[in-house]
Write a structure and sequence with these properties.
This protein has about 290 residues and is α+β, with helices and mostly antiparallel strands. It has 8 helices and 14 strands. Strand 11 and strand 12 form a beta hairpin.
């Protein structure tokens, strides 16, 4: 159980992790171990562990208490008992442990139904269970429609209806539409790889561009951007473009775009090019270029 383990270790973090690091780690692991997606025997218990750890570490006051006193501060009967709370995935909650039954007050960030926002983030299911599952309708959309949002025509109950896809949704997101849950299937993109709200793309450079530096234009989901390639750029270098990623579903922020540099080595050289490279190699310093 989480009570016997270090909350930082559960999320794969060190005690110096920032609030953003904690949020990203939880989101990644929660998506991996959510019982609706992960059918392994220990997925549910692991998911509860992750959520308990995030509940504490995402709250500045509870995190400070945990860092100072450890798990004992959150055990029943501790001097820190009473009103407690935290965050369960995308929504926050508080509960009172001084009475018989806990009094729960939820803040769903503008959503009238807690299950609606939970399903959009985790692709179905919720921590409280439901007696009836709404009928689901699968809808395939393009990668860029998921990033930027779109309006789609769907056939439901023999009628053509229009559904609005909000910007920032991902594969497996669920949208409540009338009596249905619309489950989105996002077609992968050949150029862009998505990680949460971040985008990763590869950019090829010639040997001379990497060695001498250059200014190039790269494509992002937010449009083309000019970037400077520093002299001596190495293969595998990653350039971060802030706020050029996927819009957040529930806020005005955006993820980042990461450009991963790949150096292209020419396969066919003419005699002059070979001569130049041979001269270049002869000029190599005794200690090497790096």
């Amino acid at each position: 159980m989480a009570e016997n383990k270090d909350y930082y270790s559960i999320l794969g973090l060190s005690k110096t992790a920032s609030a953003e690091d904690i949020k990203k780690a939880y989101r990644k692991l929660a998506l991996e171990y959510h019982p609706d997606r992960n059918k392994s025997k220990d997925a549910e218990s692991k998911f509860k562990e992750l959520t308990k750890a995030y509940e504490v570490l995402s709250d500045p006051q509870k995190k400070q208490t945990y860092d100072q006193f450890g798990h004992a501060a959150f055990e029943q009967g501790s001097p820190f008992g009473g009103a407690q709370g935290g965050q369960y995935g995308p929504f926050t909650y508080t509960y009172n442990t001084t009475g018989g039954n806990p009094n729960i007050d939820f803040d769903f960030g503008g959503f009238s139904d807690p299950f609606e926002i939970f399903e959009q983030f985790f692709g179905g299911g919720n921590p409280f269970g439901r007696t009836q599952r709404r009928p689901a309708y699968s809808l395939e959309i393009d990668f860029m429609d998921a990033v930027k949002g779109a309006t789609k025509k769907v056939q439901l109950d023999g009628k053509t209806q229009t559904i609005k896809i909000p910007a920032g949704v991902d594969n497996g997101s669920r949208i409540r539409f009338g009596d249905y849950d619309v489950v989105l299937e996002v077609t992968p993109d050949k150029k862009f790889q998505r990680e949460g709200y971040d985008i990763i793309s590869d950019q090829e450079l010639s040997f001379s561009q990497a060695a001498l530096g250059d200014q190039i234009e790269v494509e992002t989901v937010q449009g083309p951007v000019k970037i400077k390639i520093p002299q001596g750029t190495q293969p595998g270098t990653v350039i971060r473009l802030a706020q050029r990623g996927v819009p957040h579903v529930q806020s005005s922020g955006k993820g980042n775009h990461y450009v991963r540099i790949k150096i292209v080595v020419p396969k066919n050289l003419n005699s002059r090019q070979k001569e130049i490279l041979e001269e270049f190699e002869k000029e190599k310093p005794k200690k090497g270029w790096f």
